[in-house]
Amino acid sequence: MNVFIIGVTGAVGGLLARKLSDRGDAVRGLVRRTAQLAQLATQGIDTQVGDLATLNADELATLVSGSEVIVFSAGSNGGYKAITDAIDGDGVNKALRAARLAGVERFALVSVLPESWRERDLGEDVEHYFAVKKQADIAVTRSDLNWLILRPSLLLDGDGVGTVSLGPAEFHGEITRDDVAATLAELLHEPGIGRQILELNTGSVPIKEAVRAVRH
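The structure assignment produced for this chain is given below.
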């Protein structure tokens, strides 16, 4: 499989790139700095230099051309509103347009559980982040692509456990980025999964089994 990851230098995107590469997939991605090219090349990951915030859809389409699937795992993580708008909002819309222009039919978005942190006083910037993420989810579902939205619960560092709870609706808890990346890698390799929103939490079901259970 030829996969293009927008957010390949991020925590989930980087883990996903390594897992896909280990499976023998061709992995490409977008980086903002030339210095990052050599580091990722040592992992067998082919990257292109470009800033998602400033690239237009035509330029991005040229970069993703030839891919079988685009994975969008970039995000502002609730930072300044302008960054959230540029990455989580406009960035997703731009990537959707680029996919159509380049003829890439599959598109996977790493989103967020709407219930995340709702027990807290989040502040204006983070509330804006959740609103923009919701708008991006809607844009993806209204596209004519073969889309997938994965909404993980609160992300943790550390080694994954290899078991999850995956389905159309899950409780909000916490899960390692490693298990998120492993689940997404498995989902991408399952042709029976598409045009679905899936939520992901810590659980007791082995990842491969959990993925098979949500096939159409």
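Interim note for the steering committee: Residues 81-102 form the longest helix (22 residues). Helices lie at 11-22, 35-41, 57-64, 81-102, 124-141, 177-188, 207-213.
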